[in-house]
Fold YigZ family protein.
Amino acid sequence: MFTLSDIHTAEHEIKRSRFIAFAGPVSDEAAAKAFIAEHSDGNANHNCWAWRLAQNYRFSDDGEPSGTAGKPILQAIDGQDLDGVAVVVARWFGGTLLGSGGLIRAYGGTAAECLRLAPKSRLIAMTALSVTLRFADLAVVKARISAIADSQIVSEVFTDTGARLDVRVPRDYAADMIALVTDLTAGRAVFEDLDR
């Protein structure tokens, strides 16, 4: 699964109608609505859009025949295995009717090309954990956690006997990391799942 790294645009002219797509990353529904508002053009005849956030999604045909704009844009998002993405396709009517199939191809194709060319980053499901350690175990545990791809030590707080590390690790590797740190510390490390 991927998301977009930045906002990207693409433009097509089809039978004198102009289509411009704007695609960008969004973190929640409010951000998706703000993206749509910001990238909709009041001078365009239609501002059709779609967004996907995990299992949540919305789309709008903005006056085009039902199912000819918003849904093809959403299918372009899903077809490229994207999440946390919003797309707006603005259309300026050129005088020639495109028909339902033509609209589906125009909106879906413009969105798909925009998304295909946009810079992407891989989405990794992360788990937030806290681990409490003795001073004697701290250096080796920090080195091992830092060596795990995509992991991050978010904070380090010192106590009278050691430290508490708040870490983010890929969810698929969390159980292995806990087992590794437990072995390294001979069972002295205490874990807390911060996602609960």
About this structure: The mean pLDDT is 95.
